[in-house]
Amino acid sequence: MFQPFEKFRQEYIDRLIKMNKTYLVSQTYTRAFDHFDDPKQSILFSDYDQIGIAQIHYSAIKNDKYASLINLTNPKHKTKIIEMLSPDSEYKIYWAMVQSIDELKKRIDLKFTSHIRKYIQKNTTWNIGSSETIRPALQVVYGELFIILKRGNPTLRVKFEEIENA
User: Is 108 in the same domain as 54?
Assistant: First the structure.
């Protein structure tokens, strides 16, 4: 399973506070599951600078066992995150952020172009020629990776897992 996000590290906490991105929403993260890795629970953090937007994300996932709204300026929340990041913790923490969007696009183009073509053939009326290049855009919404496909006016926003399974 393709895992695009960064592992969250303790030094990110103070950086996020300095950038005024003091709200995090946590949720279960299934893309990091590895059959050969340790059995730690993977959690994904998404960062926000406005409480209202963080609350909307939280409301969308509130039935998730690991959903929570975190305020990095709250010492109890900050301490809990530091505990979760310790090596003996039962969690692996990821951040809904990528180091390089260009590198991520290259990885997706290299590995998933045929999947994108199959998805388009199966789920749209678009006739994509074999010499035509497909240039998907990427978007993260509520911790979920989406592929944006455009062809003229029609635009599709597709969950990455649908492309992956095509």
Answer: no
